[in-house]
Hints:
Layout (H helix, E strand, L loop, with lengths): L1 H5 L2 E8 L5 E8 L8 E20 L5 E8 L5 E7 L5 E8 L5 E5 L7 E22 L4
Antiparallel strand pairs: 1-2, 3-8, 4-7, 4-8, 5-6, 5-8
Amino acid sequence: MAGLLSTAVIILIYNFTSNSEERFVKANEPISTPSTPLTVINNEDIAGTTNTHRFDIPAGFSYVKVSFKNTGSKHFTFTINKGSTSGTEITFGSVPADGKEHTYYSDKALSTGWYYVSTSSAQGMSGTLDVSLGTDAF
């Protein structure tokens, strides 16, 4: 226990500017953080023309890995938004219809809160979604 308390861990402190850009300042504090990824969405089906899946980033986690497998015949698009489906857009992309897993990583630490993964296609979609959280970049 004493060894754990003496270990300094770098955490991120958020300073929000007036235009909502996030800046990150490093600070050293002894804390206990999870050391293994946390799966928050596991093998969820994607079907039809639109889907929305919600996940929470709790304290202690900052990075997101999102994996799609498109088993349909047409590509589909996705967006990840914070707070609501129309909230701040974190990222977006297109997933080809090749049956392979396509993985996207957050390239910066994200704040705690609810996030929404929305998928859409003019044609019917078929596939799966996985979302994992990490304490460090994947």
